[in-house]
Design goal:
single chain, 362 residues, alpha/beta, six-stranded parallel beta sheet, four-stranded mixed beta sheet, 10 helices
Amino acid sequence: MRGGSSWAGVFWRGLGKKTLYSSYSSPPKYPTVLPDAWIPSTKHHRPQSSGIFPSGHTAAIIDGKSIARDIRFRIASEIRRAKAAIGKSPGLAVVLVGKRRDSEAYINIKLRACDEVGIATLIAELPENCAETELLDVVSGFNEDPSVHGIIVQLPLPQHLDEEKIMTVVSPEKDVDGFHPLNMGNLAMRGREPLFIPCASKGCIELLLRFGVEIIGKKSVVIGRSKIVGLPTSFLLQRHHATVSTVHAFTKNPEQITSQADIVVTDVGIPNIVRGNWLKPGAVVIDMGTNLVKDPNSRRGFRVTGDVCYEEAIKVASAITPVPGGVGPVTISMLLSNTLDSAKRAFGFSSTLSGCFLNLVL
């Protein structure tokens, strides 16, 4: 029920059904344990490099698409087993305010991924000029709905809405984006265990681990400090005992700092800001930037690129994620993973099913 009315259109989208949302009750709470470092379920080792490359060297490509396919296959298997055991499936509620084309595009990608693995989706659409109380009521309703195991509020929100306030109202037990202050704070503090880890950062670490990149003791630079990517990625790298530096808009000599890093992670939204001469020979580069650049040779008139000058970086780095096709697909898979994890806690068998995929992160 997509429309421009002043009330939220809400409907189930998953599992071939569209019914009005109406039930309410609180889900049970279960503790989780996040170790200081985790091991992926499947190891993909990359060739070791001396860091001194002959002419014509090209970095290994970290293929996020193939890793995401493997993750989704495992998640779909878990969901089928859950449905066979108790007749229930995970549910994800999505809140979209306004008609931003980029937000709608991101939401559609997430919805298709949910359909693929068997997660039912519940969509609430509100007009751009909706009152903050109206949005808070929608989120609170999803907090109380036992059929909803995860809630995402698509960002950014219109300027008249208090983004921080909205994120705080989302129940920490359903905060599958991992942005609630409780989850973010627990991630930052040694000995504390977040219920959820932000999806992009979780995907970044998953790529490094699956590709066999050693993190412990390595110099890592995170370019950007946003609460969505940069900040939680720094926390996660520290959990893996990396020596982490953060580069931001006020950092002096960012290229000098970055050139000392064994691992470089970037998400600042500036095309080609990281050049080849910023990189240490043999560095591993995780490019989490997504930028639209005008391209008259493209059918759409633009192309998608990252923050790293790819043509230069592949001649210096030992491994690199492409854009698109690198971090993006794995980030979506981490959203599915978080939603499944929440559902399993609510169902009461988070540790009883064999072959639990989520053991790789929790």
